[in-house]
């Protein structure tokens, strides 16, 4: 219904949320945040996430963290975001594990703790979270807080790529290119190009310029052009 008739769906969700349906309350927060079928209202989205989180909805708790991390409907406060992520992560939500790990890895709102960040990425990766698989692979490749394990890193990059994460697709392509499997690497770079966001594409286009194979170097211009296209949207 959200795809076919967003406004009608939003009204149905609003009614269900008002009647106390937990899933509708969390979903109402999301559509208010996105402005999908209803006027965008970030402070009201925050309120509905808070209501649903108070009744134990883990994704709503995670979204409270996102709101506080990015200043959606409230003042940006990474420390408050970390508290919400921790609660949902402790209760087993993979997205909260990932988001909390990101804060731990960068020291936003919490003290930097790469060991704990890696452990959270691993828990989320083992639960099937594709973005966490890529970051776990990076820790294993670099050996920052554990012995370097390029074989395990390669496997997590592959799983992340196959799971649809554009950063994982880029990481796996880099490994394949280093192994001389350039044709296969180009396939994964095409996928990363199609799915990547603006920030990723900017960084990736620069990284591709340093490639030794001219076919991969040639992808840099395509990544840069895709950045321009996204900026025009």
Spell out the blueprint of helices and strands.
Blueprint: H1 6-18, H2 22-34, H3 42-54, H4 58-70, H5 78-90, H6 94-106, H7 114-126, H8 130-142, H9 150-162, H10 166-178, H11 182-195, H12 198-208, H13 214-232
Helix pairs in contact: 1-2, 2-3, 3-4, 4-5, 5-6, 6-7, 7-8, 8-9, 9-10, 10-11, 11-13, 12-13
What does this structure look like?
By secondary structure, the protein is mostly helical. Helices cover 75% and strands 0% of the residues. It has helices spanning 6-18, 22-34, 42-54, 58-70, 78-90, 94-106, 114-126, 130-142, 150-162, 166-178, 182-195, 198-208, 214-232. Helix 5 (78-90) crosses helix 6 (94-106). The longest helix has 19 residues, at 214-232. The protein starts with 5 loop residues before the first helix and ends with a helix. The model has no long low-confidence stretch (mean pLDDT 96).
The largest sheet, given as strand count, sense and whether it forms a barrel, is:
none
Q: Overall 3D geometry?
A: globular
What is the beta-strand fraction?
A: under 5%
Helix-strand category:
mainly alpha
Number of strands: 0
Annotation field: number of helices: 13
Low-confidence runs of at least 5 consecutive residues = none
Tell me the series of helices and strands, N- to C-terminal: HHHHHHHHHHHHH
Averaged pLDDT, please?
A: 96
User: What is the alpha-carbon Rg in Å?
Assistant: 20 Å
């Amino acid at each position: 219904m959200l795809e076919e008739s967003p406004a009608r769906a939003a009204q149905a969700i609003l009614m269900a949320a008002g009647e106390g349906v937990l899933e509708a309350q969390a979903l109402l927060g999301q559509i208010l945040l996105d402005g999908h079928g209803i006027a965008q209202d970030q402070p009201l989205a925050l309120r509905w996430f808070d209501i649903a989180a108070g009744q134990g909805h883990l994704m709503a708790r995670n979204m409270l963290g996102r709101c506080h991390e990015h200043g959606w409907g409230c003042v940006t406060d990474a420390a408050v975001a970390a508290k919400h992520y921790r609660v949902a992560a402790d209760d087993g939500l993979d997205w909260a594990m990932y988001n909390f790990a990101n804060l731990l890895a960068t020291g936003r709102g919490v003290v930097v703790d790469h060991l704990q960040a890696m452990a959270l990425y691993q828990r989320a990766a083992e639960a099937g979270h594709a973005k966490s698989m890529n970051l776990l692979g990076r820790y294993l490749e670099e050996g920052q807080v554990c012995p370097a394990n390029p074989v395990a890193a390669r496997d997590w990059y592959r799983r992340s790529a196959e799971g649809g994460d554009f950063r994982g697709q880029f990481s796996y392509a880099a490994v394949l290119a280093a192994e001389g499997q350039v044709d296969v690497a180009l396939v994964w770079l095409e996928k990363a190009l199609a799915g990547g966001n603006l920030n990723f594409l900017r960084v990736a286009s620069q990284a591709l310029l340093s490639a030794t194979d001219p076919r991969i170097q040639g992808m840099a211009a395509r990544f840069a052009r895709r950045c321009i296209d996204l900026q025009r949207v």
